Amino acid sequence: MTIQASFFEWIYHRYWLHRPWLPPQMFTAHTLVHHQLCKHDDTFQVHDEEQEEALTFQWWGGPVLIAINLVPWAGAWWMLRGRGMPPSLPIAALSAAVLTLILYYAAYEGFHYLMHRPMIAWIERSRPFRFLERHHRIHHVHMGKNFNVVVPLADLVLGTLLLRDPEAPRTTPAAARTIARRHSRFGRKLREGITPDAE
Questions:
Q1: Do 10 and 146 meet the contact criterion of CB atoms below 8 Å apart?
Q2: Alpha-carbon distance 117 to 44, whole Å?
Q3: Mean pLDDT for the stretch of residues 8-27
Q4: How far apart (Å, rounded) are the C-alpha atoms in residues 23 and 36?
Q5: SS in 3 state form for the chain?
Q6: Which residue, among 197, 32, 196, 9, has the nearest Cα to 101 in the 3D structure?
Q7: How many domains are there within the chain?
Q8: What is the mean pLDDT of residues 46-67?
């Protein structure tokens, strides 16, 4: 199940979050806002309110992504029911799949948030988390690499794993914030003359 979740995360991240389709708001929030505001080492971690806007998915994201992942398992359960298998076995397998996907999604949202907004030092100091954070930092610079946030198995298998940034560290250009503000709620408030802090 974790293997499926890693490959689904890779596909979702590469083809939905980095491509302007189905629905385009995902691409806009992720690529045009989040990736622009948290681009290089100088802006990777959140320093101001504007950067918070696209750190997590919308509230409905988790249930939808989990449901999509469950489609093949529900199909297998439907095909196997009535084939002499104890009814509790497919239900137990489906329950395990649901629990695994919930935990994977929670890890994705939680780790991603902590990478950009550190607040739980004992997690952030751990060797696995430091590896995943470095992996994700590289993704922000090289958006065609390191799509996995939780388990980079799909990056390894599909050839998008980049362990070291081949380029020298750089700073985020001012144009990145300009691009983000063209597409963000924060930028819309600025254009309408509303001070975002005043709300």
A1: no
A2: 9
A3: 91
A4: 19
A5: CHHHHHHHHHHHHHHHHCCCCCCHHHHHHHHHHHHHHCCCCCCCCCCCHHHHCCCCCCCCHHHHHHHHHHHHHHHHHHHHCCCCCCCHHHHHHHHHHHHHHHHHHHHHHHHHHHHHCCCCHHHHCCHHHHHHHHHHHHHHHCCCCCCCCCCCHHHHHHCCCCCCCCCCCCCCCHHHHHHHHHHCHHHHHHHCCCCHHHC
A6: 9
A7: 1
A8: 91
Which percentage of the chain shows pLDDT scores above 70? 97
Task: Give the span between the Cα atoms of 70 and 122, in whole angstroms.
Answer: 33
Q: Whats the size of the chain, residue-wise? A: 199
Q: Could you tell me the residue range of the domain that residue 61 belongs to?
A: 2-198
- Residues 60-90: tens digit of each pLDDT: 889 999 999 999 888 877 777 767 777 777 7
For the purposes of burial, counting CB atoms within 10 Å of the CB of 21, is it exposed (0-12), middle (13-18) or buried (19 or more)?
A: exposed
The three state secondary structure string of 170-198 is CCCCHHHHHHHHHHCHHHHHHHCCCCHHH
Query: Is the C-alpha dihedral spanning 80, 85, 91, 94 positive or negative?
Result: negative
Q: Report how far apart, in Å, the C-alpha atoms of 23 and of each of 15, 16, 20, 58, 69 are.
A: 11, 8, 8, 13, 18
| Averaged pLDDT for residues 109-114 | 97
